[in-house]
Design goal:
363 residues, alpha+beta, Jelly Rolls, 26% helix, Oxoglu/Fe-dep_dioxygenase_dom, 2-oxoglutarate-dependent dioxygenase 19-like isoform X2, iron, oxidoreductase
Length: 363
């Protein structure tokens, strides 16, 4: 993503200079860049422990999406059971055999690439003023409050219940409309399976969260090569708002998930989507299915692009634990009720800090 952002302080020794930040892409393409500006440098303690486990014994669960439409009830029952285990034990899972053609996935990556290749002047048109504007591109996460900047540019667009899209580059609107529609249908089937896995009716989440008016936000994250990747972060450890996040990548790794007290590399599977549970699934399940910390690291060789879609309730839905899932022995409901759009604004207006936003609504 690249957009002209507010002036951000960069610290050089004891002197603080102010530098107008444009985009990480522009910075990374500077011919004389051999080290990152100090304003992008994280200390070891700030970037959390660096130990990463990459063994295959901790493989991310894989869900075969085609089994949801199986005429064999045992096969559907098995995939619902697998989905329950993935949500309970990991909060992350890969989805294969989802039906989206590889050509459509590639077209989406190409379309976002063309957007990031626009001039700074063109991208400035879509900068946005508020964290919940329907179209917003920028850099870092929220430069007005970030103490250290992240090695990331982004474009965020609301694609449902109303569809929004930048007017440039040509053809972007058609590609994103088709892509986001397929992902929305994918999310509906997954949420139906999750409802079943909780002992609820298949359509429970859809009705309770008013998913016909679901707030769906499509983001594209650009992580250019970084000359000192060990000092920078693409995104800090955080959990996602919403019910589910459905993510596509361009084949370049960099996503890490917190599991079993350690960071685990998520190796991209060709043509697969990566799905993770969000804060609002944790709230409505009263903590049975928890959102999980994840982060983005960068490299010094290749540009990584990730395209997550946040699938949330309708903006005006008040999210609270489902009555059937509240266990009196666990002191009843564990989260206060809050309107989804209020939670989203709370998270997006502050520095991203683990699951701190979710902590605010815990009882």
């Amino acid at each position: 993503m690249a957009t002209v952002c507010p002036v951000a302080p960069l610290h050089h020794g004891d002197n603080t200079s102010r530098l107008k930040i444009t985009s990480v892409k522009t910075l990374a393409e500077s011919s004389n860049l051999t080290s990152i500006p100090s304003g992008y440098t994280f200390s070891a303690s700030t970037s959390d422990d660096q130990a990463v486990h990459s063994g295959h014994d901790d493989s991310i669960p894989v869900i075969d999406f085609s089994l949801f439409s199986s005429s064999n009830p045992d096969r559907r029952s098995k995939v619902v059971s697998d989905l329950a285990k993935a949500c309970r034990d990991w909060g992350f899972f890969m989805v294969i055999n989802h039906g989206m053609p590889e050509s459509q996935m590639k077209a989406t990556v190409d379309a976002f690439t063309r957007f990031f290749d626009l001039t700074e002047e063109d991208k400035r048109e879509f900068q946005g003023k508020h964290v919940l504007d329907p179209i917003r591109c920028g850099t870092s996460f929220n430069p007005s409050v970030d103490k250290v900047l992240f090695w990331r540019d982004f474009l965020k667009v609301k694609v449902h219940p109303e569809f929004h899209c930048p007017t440039k580059p040509e053809g972007l609107r058609e590609v994103l409309a088709e892509y986001s529609g397929v992902v929305r249908r994918l999310a509906r089937e997954l949420l139906s399976g999750i409802s079943e896995s909780l002992g609820l009716e298949p359509g429970y989440i859809h009705e309770a969260m008013d998913m016909d008016s679901s707030l769906q936000i499509l983001t594209a994250n650009l992580y250019p090569p970084c000359p000192q990747p060990e000092l920078a972060l693409g995104m800090p450890p955080h959990s996602d708002h919403g019910l589910l996040t459905i993510l596509m990548q361009n084949g370049i790794g960099g996503l890490q998930v917190r599991h079993g007290g350690k960071w685990v590399n998520v190796d991209p599977i060709p043509k697969a989507f990566l799905v993770n549970t969000g804060d609002h699934l944790e709230i409505m399940t009263n903590g049975k299915y928890k959102s999980v910390l994840h982060r983005a690291v960068v490299n010094n060789k290749a540009t990584r692009m990730s395209m997550p879609q946040s699938i949330g309730p309708s903006p005006n839905t008040v999210v609270t634990p489902v009555e059937q899932l509240v266990d009196g022995e666990n002191n009843g409901a564990m989260y206060i009720a809050m309107k989804y759009k209020d939670y989203l604004e709370l998270q997006q207006s502050n520095a991203l800090d683990g699951k701190s936003c979710l902590d605010w609504v815990k009882i």
